[in-house]
Design a protein that fits this description.
Elements lengths: L2 H19 L7 E3 L18 E3 L12 E6 L2 E13 L3 H16 L5 E2 L9 E15 L2 E15 L2 E14 L5 H23 L4
Parallel strand pairs: 1-4, 2-5, 2-6, 3-6
Antiparallel strand pairs: 3-4, 6-7, 7-8
Helix pairs in contact: 2-3
Length: about 200
C-alpha cells in the first residue's frame, strides 16, 4: 500500500471518529406565558371596553431571545442563543395582560383587537425590563412595565404609572425562570388593578 493511500485511509478514519464524538447540536426552545385566572372585581372599575395595545419594546426587549445579566454587571444585557419567547415580548405580554385583566373583570370587555371593538379606553404599555439576573447561588426574574390608561372620548390620560416586580427563580432552568416571570407579572397586574380601583 502506497504512502498516499495510507494517508487518505488514516484521514478518513480520523474524520469518522471526529464526527462520532462531536457534541449534539443544541436545539432552539420556545417558552410561552400562562395566565393565572384572577379574582373578578365587582362591580367593574371601568364601564366601557378596554383595548390593550401591543406593548412598546425597544432594543433587545423587542427580540424573541431571552435576556439575562450578571449581578456584578447588571447594566450589561446578554441574549441566550437557544432559548426564546414564543412571540416577541410586545405581543406576548399584550395577550398575557389582556387575559389577566379580562379575568379580573375590570371592564365589561377587555380586548386586543383594535378595529371594531368600540373601546372606550386605550391601555398602552412599555417594557422597561424583562430579564433574568444571575448571581452567586441564586437568580431572579425582574420585570418592569410602564402603563398609561387613556379615555378615548373625550380623549385624555387618566392614569399613568411604572411598576417593577422581582421573583426568585427556584431552580436552575429556563422553565423555572418563566414561572418566576409569571409570578412577577401577576404582582404587577394585581397592583395595577388596585390602583385602578381609585378611579371608581
Amino acid at each position: 500500500m502506497s504512502s498516499t493511500i495510507k494517508f487518505l485511509a488514516v484521514s478518513m478514519i480520523l474524520t469518522l471518529v471526529g464526527c462520532q464524538s462531536a457534541p449534539p447540536v443544541s436545539e432552539d426552545k420556545y417558552f410561552r406565558l400562562e395566565a393565572t385566572p384572577a379574582t373578578a372585581t365587582t362591580p367593574p372599575i371601568l364601564h366601557e371596553t378596554v383595548y390593550v395595545a401591543p406593548l412598546r419594546a425597544e432594543g433587545p426587549y423587542a427580540e424573541r431571545a431571552m435576556l439575562y445579566a450578571m449581578a456584578e454587571q447588571p447594566r450589561v444585557l446578554q441574549q441566550y442563543h437557544y432559548q426564546h419567547w414564543s412571540e416577541p415580548p410586545a405581543l406576548l405580554l399584550q395577550e398575557h395582560l389582556r387575559s389577566h385583566l379580562e379575568s379580573l373583570a375590570i371592564a365589561p370587555h377587555v380586548t386586543d383587537i383594535a378595529v371594531g371593538s368600540g373601546a372606550g379606553y386605550l391601555l398602552n404599555g412599555k417594557i422597561l425590563r424583562l430579564e433574568k439576573i444571575i448571581e452567586a447561588g441564586r437568580a431572579k426574574s425582574v420585570v418592569s412595565l410602564h402603563f398609561a390608561l387613556q379615555k378615548k372620548k373625550p380623549f385624555g390620560l387618566i392614569f399613568e404609572h411604572t411598576y417593577t416586580s422581582e421573583a426568585v427563580i427556584l431552580e436552575d432552568s429556563q422553565n423555572a425562570y418563566v414561572i418566576a416571570t409569571e409570578s412577577a407579572l401577576r404582582n404587577i397586574y394585581t397592583q395595577f388593578g388596585k390602583d385602578l380601583s381609585i378611579l371608581k
